[in-house]
Specification:
heterodimer; A: 143 residues; alpha/beta; Rossmann fold; 5-stranded parallel sheet; 5 helices; 15% strand; globular; B: 359 residues; alpha+beta; Cytochrome-c3 Hydrogenase, chain B; 3-stranded antiparallel sheet; 12 helices; 8 strands
Chain lengths: 143, 359
Amino acid sequence: MSFNKKSPWILHYDATSCNGCDIEVLASLTPLYDVERFGVVNTGDPRHADILLITGSVNGQSIPVIKQLYEQMPDPKAVVAVGICATSGGIFADCYNVEGGVDKVLPVDVYVPGCAARPQSIIDGILKACDILEEKQKALKGR
Amino acid sequence: MGKRTVVPFGPQHPVLPEPIHLDLVLEDEKVIEAIPQIGYVHRGLEKLVDKKDFKQFTYVSERICGICSFMHGAGYCMSVESIMGIEVPERAVFLRTIWAELSRIHSHLLWLGLTADAFGFESLFMHTWRLREQVLDLFEQTTGGRLIFSVCDIGGVRKDITPEMLDKIVSVVTNMDKELRDVTSVFLNDSTVKHRTVGIGLLSKEKALELGAVGPMAKASGIRRDMRTQGYCAYKYLEFEPITAEEGDSYARMQVRIGEIFQAIDLIKQCIEKLPEGDIITKIKGNPKGEHFTRVEQPRGEALYYVKANGTKFLDRFRVRTPTFANVPALLEILKDCDLADVPILILTIDPCISCTER
């Protein structure tokens, strides 16, 4: 079954991003980049989502929120860390309220580099996550 | 009188690109009170002055917010320059103004798109963001970055704009002007858009003054307050009038922002006409000592930067007061007695930038 790969729904959450990556995620949905041509739909509901896009590093207050979002998503699911902050904390790694990258809390499947990540690389990251979804789907079936 | 219910709004919500939590106390469909809870984006950026020296901090200050990144960088650089008594070359001052006004166009187009999305006008959202990409292309061609471009430095700017590129900027913004008239006429004349914005979120002039609203929020209530009139950067050489409206509703705020887009196009053209020749950066020596306040007009309103330096590489204190922070009391005021269905539009009407506010 490859429904997920044909049309993955993405959920975007801003953990502690500076907005730069967030608006690039939105920009990749708009006409010039148009991620919808790969069947990708942006949703606001975690229960409909296949891929979780997280921008920015995590802090004490956003950890429970992203954990809850992840738990609410149906299996199989993939997590994409967008931007350098989500990968390692980036320039804010030394801040007192920054715990580090998203992988401190959730299992991250794809890391997208950049500050701010460019729409092209975000689209690339989403497509990589689609392949991972497919594998996870097969593993689920075989269980 | 109906029963009171509390509806939690956020931190994750389709209309919010950024997390903020509001507890909406409802009586039937009317919002009686909105209780905000923030802290989801707090990083503790101001404290980084202990770990990054004042030159490196330019990059940190640009990452306060990805939308008005250039203006944050410029505001910080202007504060440090004033402390150190650095004379910034005239050409750099004009180049800063060009980039700042381009940022204003991109920020207001972004806001128009998100607002269209909030009231469900998807195609309008796509059209404004299509136009916005032209501005981002200009950024990329002149600086190398789309959103965060690190072109502003203490003492001036890092990159010059070639005469050919200046011609291109003029032709792009002139062509954009025509397309913008088409798109913005939908915002201003379409009956469905009017239905969602006219008379919604009224803020009187007295209330706006009392709550300390800034930027388009204040201007739409008839307060003629624009930091650019103070004449920082190259604004002292340019001719412009702050754009205001009287009604104080969501529609008036949209009018002000649309007016500011066309004003920014005019200011860019004026800058390019008056652009002097010369150096773009002054070499700096030594470390800053002293303190300074800078006030900058961002797309969302007045931002205030405070820098205190002690003569070493590391600053004592850096403080920003961002426009969204100043507008939150006004937001809570207009949320009172509104319909639950209007809450997304009202939150967007202040053009919230949570990452600026919490840093």
